[in-house]
Amino acid sequence: MDEDPTDFEVNYLFGKSLMHTGEPSLAIWSLRRAVKSSAYAFDAGMLLAQAALDSRTPEDSIDAVDFALAAQPDNVEALALRAHAKLKVARHAEALADVERALELHPGNFAIVVPRVLVLLEFQRVDEAEAVLDAEKHSEETADDPLGEEIQARLCLTNAAFAFESGDHKSAEVMYADCLDAYPTHRLVVLQAVDFYDAIGQQQRATALLRRTFEQTRATHFGYALSRRVRRLGDEEQSISPPFPEV
């Protein structure tokens, strides 16, 4: 990077390394350079989209996935990621279009299950969402290979989000607690549980969860999330000092 900060391959590898070490915000600058190369448009675009989503900038995530889809227009994982980002900014009809396109291409791909369920809930198609979840549970039970931890964690979160969006906040609280018991340091599980506790008015509980997880893992992504949270809450939780200085 010191020798040639414009080199596409170096920027891609540097951004990828930062993503693997849990520093998505720091990865964004390099990945934005790498995505301009046709050789790295897809891989860098996908990483950049995830980095932007992790950094809570879903509009930027959508733009990044567009680069990836320009390179591979029929990639189901890219369509699923863009649907996730569009759900974050309430572009529900566009998210549904991405989900339907992905289903046409590969109906059995698990990557589309979570955004599919969430978008169905946005359109109040509860019975269809339940059917998708029931089918996925069956496929999990009968599959030759068990689902990986990442997929199981996401499926757990989908069930919890389903309960919350259906108005059953008590069941959702139990389900999020179960997800945290099963995956106590999983990035997405912790951050979505934090969002859930905020949504039900339990901000102190959310902050305590984030702080406890950071203290246990010392993971940078939890540290920065905690720092941003403490600064945002201000006087409401002024007794809590951020783990990192203002940057």
What features would you describe in this structure?
With 247 residues, the protein is mainly alpha-helical. The chain contains 13 helices and no strands. The two termini are 22 Å apart. The model is unreliable at 238-242 (pLDDT under 50).
In summary, what is this structure?
The chain is an all-alpha fold.
Multimer state = single chain
pLDDT average, as an integer? 86
Unreliably modeled segments: 238-242
Q: Count helical runs.
A: 13
- Structural class, please? mainly alpha
Q: Strand count, sense and closure of the main sheet? A: none
Query: What is the number of E strands?
Result: 0
* SSE ordering: HHHHHHHHHHHHH
Shape: globular
Beta content comes to under 5%
What is the terminal-to-terminal distance? 22 Å
- Rg to the nearest angstrom? 19 Å
Helicity range: over 70%
